Each structure stands twice: as C-alpha cells, then as structure tokens.
C-alpha cells in the first residue's frame, strides 16, 4: 500500500500530519502501509520554482494512492497563471487520468445544527455524488472568444463520447452496489443532445447492474430536490459541469466544510484523496484546523483503492466516536461541546481507533 503524501500549503501540513498518525496506527495493526512525502502547490513554487515538480509527479505515478492536504494562498495569487499553486492540482489530476470524482455529503446527527436547513430535513444525510472530471464543456473543443460578424462572441463545446459516459456510469453503479443500490443520473436531456446520449448510455449500462435501481432527473430539478428533500438520494452521477455545481451545493447542506472528504479515481481505482476544503490561510499555523475531512479521506482511500472495507469503517467509526464524545474544532463548535485544536482531535481519533 504505497501512499504518496502531498501536504501542500496553508493548513495542509497540519491536517495531513494527523492523517499520517492514523496511517501509522493502521500500519502497526498490520496493514502494509508505506508513505512518502513530496512538495506541491505554493510550497513547491517556493522550493523549486514550479507548483508540480517532476519528482512529485514521479512519486505520485509510482504510488497506489495520493493523499493531498490543500494548495494555495494569498502570497502566490500574483504569480503568472502557469505558476499558480492550483496548476499543480490540475496537472496531477490530468497526468494520473483521474476521471471519477467522488464527493460524499454526510451530515452526522451530532452536527445537524451546523446546516442552514432544518435538522429534520438533513440529520443523517448520506449522499455520494459521482462527478465526471475530465470531459464535458470544461475541456471540449472548439472553445474561445472571437469576432463574428463584427461582434465579439464567447463559445464552448459540451461533448461526451459513449466510452467516457460508460466508464463513469460503471464507477457509479459499482459504488451504488456498495451502498443502498439506488442511483440517480442527472442530465438536461430535454434541451441538450449531449446529455440525451448520457441518459441513453447510462440506461444501457444499467443492464449490467440489475440490482441497482436507476432513476433519471433533470439538473434543475436535482438542484431543487437537494435542498427540498436531500435524503431521497443515495448515489448521484452526472457530468463535469453539473457535478461541479451540485457537489458544492450538496456539501453546503452539511454546513461543515472541515468534515468532507473526496476522492478522484482512475480506471484501475488508483486515486487521489483530499479534503473538499481549501488551504484556509486565515487559520494556518494556529493549530485550529479541523483534520477530520483529511482523516475521512484516508477512510475513502482504504475503501476505494485498497478494498479494505473493515479498516475504512474503523476509521469512520473513530471519527463518529470523537463527535459523539463532544469534541469539536472551532469550525464545528457549538454550545455544550468541548472546543479543541487540530492535534487534540487527532489524539482523540487515535484513541477511538
Ligand atoms: P477554504 O476552504 O480554504 O476556506 C474557507 C473557510 O473555511 C475559511 O474561513 C477557512 O478557515 C475555513 N476552513 C476550511 N477548511 C477548514 C478546516 N479544515 N478547518 C477549519 N476551518 C476550515 O477556501 P478559500 O478561503 O476560498 O481558499 C483559500 C485558498 O485555498 C485559496 O488559495 C484557494 O485557491 C485554495 N483552495 C484550494 C483547494 C484545494 O487545494 N483543493 C480547494 C479550494 C480552495
């Protein structure tokens, strides 16, 4: 189990340090985990002049999985576009061909008050959004801004091949099989031919997964249903652009960005795992960051890349235990709970583990 760890910038090193302690505990319990660290983002720019050094790419390519903290910060915002920390992220996703983005939105009952929705609507929420990550209008050609008939126009191309749709559908059906076996595919087939093909191919792929109940929903309705009755969903699958928007909407249902992990997988289940939040420069270096999203990313890694379901559940149960014991970092603190820092939450997770 070779894991390339990329702490990155801001709170990245603090939160990955806690995840590394969890990995070390699992190693001492017998899992053959090896970790190696490398630079990415602003810290790589400072040390080597580029956000994604070749040595980092090589290490990530040789590993079975990558664990990333976060990249970016105001001190690098003025750099030319190709030297920006975020470029490191895009570069690694592209080079590892990570086409399937998994974004769970889970709201632990203990944190129901963190949501802006009524607790009865969101408490116990557990959705997995599967977003296609390497195609769609974000990458389609032709694209540009040009002069046409004396007027400036901007244009992009929404495009998906059957093979691209089929492989993301397969990932989503596979995940649904490991959960409640319900999959909702989101498209805009009433207006966009590209997504008519999407619906046809997903429907066809369903034949290989007779135990999964497949439904379809138009994206505008899906956006409404996510705030009206989010618990109706188990797994959702959609294209790059719709998934970008819906996964952010779904994560905000939980109200606690410091709790949400994510995964991006390739065709062989090799993956990059990272918290859904950024580098939080406002609290970096203060020992205040919530490391639970990163620790839960380790649980996703154990489940999806290494097939270690039992270990994944152990890590998730440890996080739940810490919450039910009433420990909270500042971002999820409320009256009646105990406010602690990054390392103390890590200590508590290790003790629960
Ligand atoms: P952010 O997610 O870093 O922070 C938003 C707010 O949430 C801040 O108040 C922050 O303190 C808080 N927060 C985030 N994670 C937290 C945690 N684990 N514990 C406690 N509080 C937490 O988003 P932003 O402020 O828009 O971006 C900051 C930097 O991060 C920017 O440079 C941006 O480009 C970068 N960024 C990186 C990634 C990534 O690495 N994947 C994603 C988003 C943003």
What does it look like?
The chain is of the alpha/beta class. Helix content is about 40%, strand content about 20%. The protein has helices spanning about 10-30, 40-50, 55-60, 85-95, 120, 160-180, 195-205, 220-230, 240-255, 290-305, 310-325, 340-350, and strands spanning about 1-10, 35, 65-70, 100-105, 125-130, 145-150, 150-155, 180-185, 215-220, 235-240, 260-265, 270-275, 325-330, 340. A 10-stranded mixed β-sheet has the order 2-1-3-12-11-4-5-10-8-9, with helices on both faces. Strands 6-7 form a two-stranded antiparallel sheet. A two-stranded parallel sheet has the order 13-14. Strand 6 (about 145-150) and strand 7 (about 150-155) form a beta hairpin. Helix 1 crosses helix 10 (about 290-305), helix 1 (about 10-30) runs parallel beside helix 12 and helix 11 crosses helix 12. The longest helix has 17 residues, at about 10-30. It is globular, with a radius of gyration of 20 Å. Bound molecules: nicotinamide-adenine-dinucleotide. Nicotinamide-adenine-dinucleotide (NAD) binds next to helix 4.
For the largest beta sheet, what order do the strands appear in spatially? Answer: 2-1-3-12-11-4-5-10-8-9
User: Element order, helices and strands?
Assistant: EHEHHEHEHEEEHEHEHEHEEHHEEH
Percent range of helical residues: 40-55%
Q: In one word, what is the shape?
A: globular
Strand content: 15-25%
What would you report as the Rg, rounded to the nearest angstrom? 20 Å
Secondary structure category: alpha/beta
Task: Please name the fourth-level CATH homologous superfamily of the largest domain.
Answer: Isopropylmalate Dehydrogenase
What is the number of E strands?
Answer: 14
What small molecules accompany the polymer chains? nicotinamide-adenine-dinucleotide
Low-confidence stretches: none
The pLDDT mean sits at 95
């Amino acid at each position: 189990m070779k894991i390339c760890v990329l702490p990155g910038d801001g709170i990245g090193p603090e939160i990955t340090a806690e995840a590394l302690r969890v990995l070390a505990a699992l190693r001492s319990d017998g899992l053959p985990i090896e970790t190696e660290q490398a630079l990415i983002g602003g810290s790589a720019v400072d040390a080597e002049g580029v956000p994604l050094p070749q040595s980092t790419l090589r290490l990530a390519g040789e590993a079975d999985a990558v664990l990333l903290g976060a990249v970016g910060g105001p001190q690098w915002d003025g750099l030319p576009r190709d030297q920006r920390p975020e470029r490191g992220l895009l570069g690694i996703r592209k080079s590892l061909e990570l086409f399937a983005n998994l974004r769970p939105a889970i709201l632990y009952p203990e944190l129901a008050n963190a949501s802006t929705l009524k607790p009865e609507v969101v408490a116990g929420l557990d959705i997995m959004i599967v977003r296609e990550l390497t195609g769609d209008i974000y990458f389609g050609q032709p694209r540009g801004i040009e002069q046409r008939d004396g007027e400036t126009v901007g244009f992009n191309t929404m495009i998906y091949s059957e093979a691209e749709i089929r492989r993301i559908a397969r990932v989503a059906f596979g995940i649904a099989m490991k959960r409640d076996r319900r999959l909702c595919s989101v498209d805009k087939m009433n207006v966009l031919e590209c997504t008519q093909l999407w619906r046809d191919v997903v429907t066809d792929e369903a034949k290989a997964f007779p135990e999964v109940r497949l439904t379809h929903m138009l994206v505008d309705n899906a956006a409404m249903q996510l705030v009206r009755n989010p618990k109706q969903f188990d797994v959702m699958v959609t294209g790059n652009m719709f998934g970008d928007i819906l996964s952010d909407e779904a994560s905000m249902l939980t109200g606690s960005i410091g709790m949400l992990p994510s995964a991006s997988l390739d065709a062989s289940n090799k993956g990059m795992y990272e918290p859904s939040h950024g580098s939080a420069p406002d609290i970096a270096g203060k020992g205040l960051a919530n490391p639970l999203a990163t620790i839960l990313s380790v649980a996703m890694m154990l489940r999806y890349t290494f097939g270690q379901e039992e270990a994944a559940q152990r890590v998730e149960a440890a996080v739940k235990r810490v919450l039910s014991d009433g420990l909270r970092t500042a971002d999820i603190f409320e009256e009646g709970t105990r406010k602690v820092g990054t390392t103390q939450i890590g200590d508590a997770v290790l003790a629960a583990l």
